[in-house]
Amino acid sequence: MYGKLPFYISIVTLFLLPLIVFYLIPQLGFFPFSPSLPPPISPSDERSDLDLLRRASSSSKPYSSHLSSNSRSPKIAFLFLTNTQLHFSPLWQSFFHSSKASPSSPRFNVYVHSSPSLNLTFRPSSVFYGRVIASKATYRASPTLISATRRLIAHAILHDPANQYFALVSQHCVPLHSFDYVYNSLFKSTSFDLTDDDKVSAKIGVKLRFRSYIEVLDQSKNHWKRYTARGRYAMEPEVPYEKFRVGSQFFIITRKHAYSVVRDRKLWAKFRVPCYWEYDCYPEEHYFPTLLDMEDPKGVTKYTLTRVNWTGTVEGHPYTYSASEVSPQLIHDLRKSNYSASYLFARKFAPNCLEPLMKIAISVIFQD
Ligand SMILES: *[C@@H]1O[C@H](CO)[C@@H](O)[C@H](O)[C@H]1NC(C)=O
Ligand SMILES: *[C@@H]1O[C@H](CO)[C@@H](O)[C@H](O)[C@H]1NC(C)=O
Ligand SMILES: *[C@@H]1O[C@H](CO)[C@@H](O)[C@H](O)[C@H]1NC(C)=O
Fold first, then answer.
1. Per-residue model confidence as pLDDT tens digits over 331-361
2. What is the domain count for the chain?
3. What is the domain-level CATH number for residue 122?
4. What ligand 3 atom has the least distance to the C-alpha of 336?
5. How far is CA 146 from the centre of its chain?
């Protein structure tokens, strides 16, 4: 009778082993299988971020749904997320200078999150001068890109209550229009957003509704694999599969949604868990669309204003334009959108595009 016991034990162990290896060990934070995975977020980084997010979420909330009736001009916070030099800073500089509004009361603020190992320095005359926030290293296939974005948003909330739209861009992004075009599209135009069915605004010609421009899709290639990248039940119950969304990493969100982002602890507790392996692991493409679509589905347009070319994608990277491809025609082609009057930004551009882009900046890009 006792002779069978070792047999049962070995059977049970056989079934438990995969569970331990594939579920429990990753839950505990050990990753014996994929040495290429970036390090998890350290407790001290987590603590300092939490402190910043708390300060931002408890700051006063001068958010108005009727921005145009505000006495102070609302501003756009430009959040630059980079882990290299900002190759296109001269182009962005002329973008900001293209504004016809008085330079003494700019309608934008600039914030830069860069890799701490880079010593980003700008001339005192640059709009980027002194705008690099306290940053930490970021890695692909890790939640650090979410952390960096939340840091930028928190800084922008705390720094200026006039920041009413928050535009996230990277070092590979370029503007497709003048600053005034971007500003009017976001704050004034009642015809810019082709998906907006707000008849009242259209009728009176005054924009009353302000939505976030963030891509929100409920399907993607390998959606299930992306959902289970941290373990089969890792996202439950806070993020059921039906609520799991995907979208472009780059977005323009309202101050209301910026608060949603800095307030969130529930979804972050899920998304901060590292993946088992680097494949199908793109936390930053899921966290923001999932969070905002769960909280305020009617407040998001579900499309992005940053054009990206996914044809011929390599290892999760979109197509990168090089200098020889830059032309007025390319700018006109990249603007074309099915959802809005135009795209506002585009990516990715190789650093050598700066010169040809500067050549057509005044005559083409900022000419509208
Ligand atoms: C960063 O650059 C500035 C100006 O070039 C220099 O004074 C400073 O020592 C540099 N810091 C580091 C950490 O390299
Ligand atoms: C997108 O990239 C492909 C190369 O993968 C290129 O042939 C095509 O012209 C690009 N589309 C646009 C609109 O630039
Ligand atoms: C717009 O929609 C058409 C038809 O679905 C599609 O062929 C085209 O690629 C879309 N354009 C853009 C810029 O996404």
1. 999 999 999 999 999 999 999 999 999 999 9
2. 1
3. 3.90.550
4. 13
5. 8
Does any domain span residue 328? no
Q: Is 13 a domain residue?
A: no
Please, which residues have CB within 8 angstroms of residue 354's CB and are 6 or more apart in sequence?
87, 88, 90, 91
What's the CA gap between 89 and 169, in Å, rounded?
12
* Mean predicted confidence (pLDDT) in 267-277: 93
pLDDT bin (cut points 50, 70, 90) of residue 21 is low
Instruction: Name the closest-CA residue to atom 4, ligand 3.
Output: 338
Q: How many residues does the chain have?
A: 368
Confidence of residue 103 (pLDDT cuts 50, 70, 90): confident
Distance CA 298, CA 292 (A): 10
Dig out the tokens for 245 from the structure. Answer: 């969304």
In angstroms, the CA 128 to CA 109 distance is 9
The verdict on residue 190 lying in a domain is yes
Q: Is 279 in the pocket of ligand 2 (CB under 6 A)?
A: no
Q: What is the extent of the structural domain holding 300?
A: 43-306
Torsion angle, alpha carbons of 152, 176, 316, 29, to 10: 0
- How many Å lie between the centroid of ligand 2 and the Cα of residue 309? 6
Nearest CA owner, ligand 3 atom 1: 338
Could you identify the residue written with the tokens 């603020």?
Answer: 109
